[in-house]
Write a structure and sequence with these properties.
Layout: H1 13-29, H2 37-50, H3 55-58, E1 59-61, H4 65-74, E2 79-82, H5 85-90, H6 93-98, E3 102-104, H7 110-119, H8 123-133, E4 141-144, H9 148-161, E5 167-170, H10 178-185, E6 193-196, H11 203-227
Helix pairs in contact: 1-2, 2-11, 4-11, 7-8, 8-9, 9-10
Length: about 230
Amino acid sequence: MSSLNTVTEQLTAAGRAIEHDSFAVIDQEAGPHTYDDAQWQVVRRMIHANADFDFNGLTEFHEGAIAAAMSAILGQRSRVVADVEMICVGLSAPRLAHFGLTTHQFISDADVIAAAQAENTTRAVQAMRKAHRGGLLDGAIVGIGNAPTALIEVVRLIREEGARPALIVGMPVGFVSAAESKDLAATLREVPWIVIRGRKGGSTLVVAAIHALLGLAEAQARERALAS
């Protein structure tokens, strides 16, 4: 049996070589870090996505984040709930299907827009409320890369309405409430999280982080199969 991932790797030898060479460059140039091996797999892929070494240091993990992600992904009962369609489109459909994961986003739904207009909130807030009403947040990997208000609302839903995502990947980018929303998420003890401190972030980073987590899950599943 191969020691390499097959589902979460590039599909051609040339593609895999380029990606692995890129990771080698990142490992060489990133400098020292305090992440464990699994966390570094996530941070390294985020650096790879943006060629920005600042994510070595800006990225922070709840102590239970990796374990929670592995449990959710390998449990075949989870889903990804995103703040914007870009995340759902960016995630690899074959990789998600391998783990039985589905994606959900409601940012452009007519009822979400109407509720945001009626209540003078953002569509992102109403989208997270709709996901919660539909029972989709519980046990989900929540990926937020665009809307700080979505992340703030998820924290509220956790604390006030008992929502229990498996993991929050909170990486909204921007200048208004972006840094503050991630600081708020990092105070959560009820639900594990991965955040990028400060203004940097974006949907691309959420996709990269989730792809890294899928890769870790495939490796863990392979190790379990070999041990059994």
